[in-house]
Amino acid sequence: MNSVTRTHSRRQTGSMNRKDDHYYIEQVVNGNVAAFSYLVEKYRDMVYGLSLKMLKNTEDAEELAQDTFVKAFQSLSSYQGKSKFSTWLYRITYNGAITLMRKRKLALYSLDEQRLSDEDELTIGTRLAEIDQEELAESLKRAMEELPADDQVLITLFYYEDQRVEDIAHITGLSASNVKVKIHRARKKMYLYLKENLEEAVFNVL
């Protein structure tokens, strides 16, 4: 086999190994159910990781991840490819998480937005760096839990999953401008919680 033939052969093999999601989606839609296992294998860590970050509980996260793939399989024929398949999966995961969080009342109450101000955010923001990082991490976790379910998910997607505003808009069904506003308000709610609960620690370091 000459070098040209070997190169062509390697390219063909590489192409077969790099079949994209759409190939497997078409396979499943056309009746090859086994092809769905490729999509599960590829995205299960992503779906489970997002589920765990949102629900903070391994049992709930496993349940949500399983439900996500079941719903994805059942709805696969409706996937039109307008967004990435991963974004479509994120949306199914998001909807499932919101339902669970509201049902199980993980978001107990929201903070009074009228008490928020830019001064609160700037003041607490400049002093948080002085607080013990372990204490701060625990306080941030508690602050997240005080947010309404949909705000928790927006913060998770934007800050922990590094999703772009445009992708979050696809996932949640909100407009990009609405996503920005809600993330900004959620951040301010978290700052107010931190100000109220870390005030003594914050001002002790000054």
TrEMBL record:
Swiss-Prot/TrEMBL keywords: DNA-binding, Sigma factor, Transcription, Transcription regulation
Segments forming domain RNA polymerase sigma factor 70 region 4 type: 138-190
GO process annotations (BP): DNA-templated transcription initiation
GO molecular function: DNA binding; sigma factor activity
UniProt keyword annotation of Transmembrane present: no
Record flagged with keyword Transcription: yes
Record-annotated RNA polymerase sigma-70 region domain positions: 39-105
PANTHER family: RNA POLYMERASE ECF-TYPE SIGMA FACTO, RNA POLYMERASE SIGMA FACTOR HI_1459-RELATED
Family classification: Belongs to the sigma-70 factor family. ECF subfamily.
Name of the molecule in the record: RNA polymerase sigma factor
Native species: Sunxiuqinia elliptica
Lineage start: Bacteria, Pseudomonadati, Bacteroidota, Bacteroidia, Marinilabiliales
